[in-house]
């Protein structure tokens, strides 16, 4: 049983009696003794994305634009409607028992911060037009960022040295490690590459930001951080904590670096657009708490229609097809694993749409993708969990103790193969991919359907 006035006040009781009618009556009497006031943003939604847990139940809530409606299960929807919310998306993970779900939902709603709370927290004035433009990107993941420093490493290891561990020490396997542990560790290590791959002539013609990327989570790794490829997620974690050398390239990336300039000229010839080349972009310029996110776009596009500026970003792909150019036909649709990168680039660069251009020796295709605020809210929650619950705790431990086998010794902060929201993000990626517009596809200079 729930009670509410549809204007921000909602409550729930709990009564346990043998007879159902008596239990209902007692619950009705107690309901008004446990009321909560929930702040609503623009009288229809919440101000930012939020997550909360109660026992084995985890609830995610995302703000939604006007007229989208409620997208939630029956229990969550009833609570939100009685509180006066009309546009919210929700997802429950883990145990779905009504009691646990109710507790988790109220815990999440009580953790939502108001505009005044944000101003006091950051010491700045939060403009209302920013909230209305992008309610999920005000810079708060309250349920996650509040707890980003609550972990402790004191009970995990005994201190053996005050010096910092280096990546070289990680890469030297200890002699006592068993063969099974060694083989398990090797599958995450970067495959050995030839020195010629790292030569300057095979690097990107203007993006040389490897050093800046080491301490950031960049858009090109978003799908791996969520768990689109299970082994790659653990591999990325090992890279970010310095356990293995970061990925510097292979034959496919060399092919892309060589051909991307040709692809860019082809794109400009087809569209007539002027492309600007930005610097390495860090997300946290307006909100320092997000400075761990970054992007390195291929270009920025500004179009003017009836005097109005349309701001877009360009992403170029030059598929390698395993070196078999007989299969090198332009894509008919955007792969799912490219959607997190595309949405991340648009959010970090603050652009409304993306031209996703695919070049091959036999032809090319051009897609138009639009920015999705709800998708970014879910993606950022997953990325934040990866960074603050796995990467940063492991780095702090490595700064205090000598770690020779991170897969075993850092087991408590090692990420699972997939994030809890990975399935949801994959489904939403398919939706965005299906809704993207194929503007053009040409083979040998001829347009095709």
TrEMBL record:
Keyword RNA-binding appears in the UniProt entry: no
Name of this chain's protein: Mediator of RNA polymerase II transcription subunit 26-like
Swiss-Prot/TrEMBL GO biological process terms: DNA repair; translation
InterPro entries, A to Z: NF-kappa-B_Signaling_Reg, PDDEXK-like_dom_sf, Restrct_endonuc-II-like, Ribosomal_Su5_D2-typ_SF, Ribosomal_uS5_C, Ribsml_uS5_D2-typ_fold_subgr, YqaJ_viral_recombinase
GO cellular component: cytoplasm; ribonucleoprotein complex; ribosome
Occurrences of domain Small ribosomal subunit protein uS5 C-terminal (ranges): 53-121
Pfam families: Ribosomal_S5_C, YqaJ
GO MF term (any one): structural constituent of ribosome
UniProtKB keywords: Ribonucleoprotein, Ribosomal protein
Domain YqaJ viral recombinase: 208-347
Domain of life (superkingdom): Eukaryota
Annotated organism of origin: Hibiscus syriacus
Entry's transmembrane regions: none
Similarity annotation: Belongs to the universal ribosomal protein uS5 family.
């Amino acid at each position: 049983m729930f009670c509410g006035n549809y204007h921000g006040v909602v409550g729930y009781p709990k009564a346990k009696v043998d007879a159902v009618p008596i239990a209902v009556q007692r619950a009705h009497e107690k309901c008004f003794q446990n009321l909560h006031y929930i702040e609503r943003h623009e009288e229809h939604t919440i101000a930012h994305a939020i997550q909360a847990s109660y026992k084995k139940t985890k609830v995610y809530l995302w703000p939604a634009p006007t007229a989208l409606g409620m997208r939630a299960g029956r229990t969550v929807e009833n609570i939100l409607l009685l509180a006066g919310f009309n546009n919210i998306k929700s997802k429950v993970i883990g145990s779905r028992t009504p009691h646990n779900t109710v507790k988790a939902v109220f815990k999440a709603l009580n953790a939502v911060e108001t505009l005044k709370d944000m101003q006091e927290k950051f010491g700045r004035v939060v403009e209302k037009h920013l909230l209305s433009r992008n309610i999920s990107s005000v810079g708060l993941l309250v349920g996650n960022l509040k707890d980003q420093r609550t972990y402790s490493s004191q009970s995990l290891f005994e201190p053996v040295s005050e010096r910092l561990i280096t990546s070289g020490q990680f890469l030297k396997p200890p002699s006592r490690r068993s063969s099974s542990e060694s083989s398990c560790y090797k599958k995450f290590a970067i495959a050995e590459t030839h020195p010629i791959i790292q030569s300057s002539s095979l690097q990107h013609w203007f993006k040389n930001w490897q050093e800046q990327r080491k301490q950031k989570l960049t858009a090109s790794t978003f799908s791996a951080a969520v768990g689109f490829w299970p082994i790659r997620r653990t591999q990325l974690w090992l890279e970010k904590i310095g356990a293995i050398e970061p990925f510097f390239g292979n034959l496919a990336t060399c092919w892309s670096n060589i051909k991307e300039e040709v692809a860019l000229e082809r794109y400009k010839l087809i569209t007539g657009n002027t492309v600007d080349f930005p610097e390495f972009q860090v997300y946290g310029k307006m909100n320092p708490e997000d400075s761990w996110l970054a992007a390195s776009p291929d270009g920025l596009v500004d179009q003017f229609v009836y005097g109005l500026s349309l701001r877009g970003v360009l992403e170029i792909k030059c598929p390698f097809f395993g070196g078999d150019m007989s299969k090198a036909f332009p894509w008919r649709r955007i792969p799912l694993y490219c959607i997190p990168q595309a949405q991340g680039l648009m959010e970090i660069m603050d652009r409304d749409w993306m031209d996703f251009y695919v070049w091959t020796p036999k032809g090319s295709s051009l897609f138009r993708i639009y920015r999705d605020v709800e998708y970014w809210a879910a993606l950022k929650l997953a990325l934040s969990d990866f960074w603050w619950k796995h990467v940063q705790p492991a780095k702090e431990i490595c700064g205090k103790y000598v770690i020779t086998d991170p897969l075993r010794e850092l087991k408590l902060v090692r990420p699972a193969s997939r994030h809890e929201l990975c399935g949801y993000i994959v489904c939403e990626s398919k939706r965005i991919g299906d809704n993207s517009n194929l503007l053009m596809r040409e083979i040998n200079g001829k347009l095709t359907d």
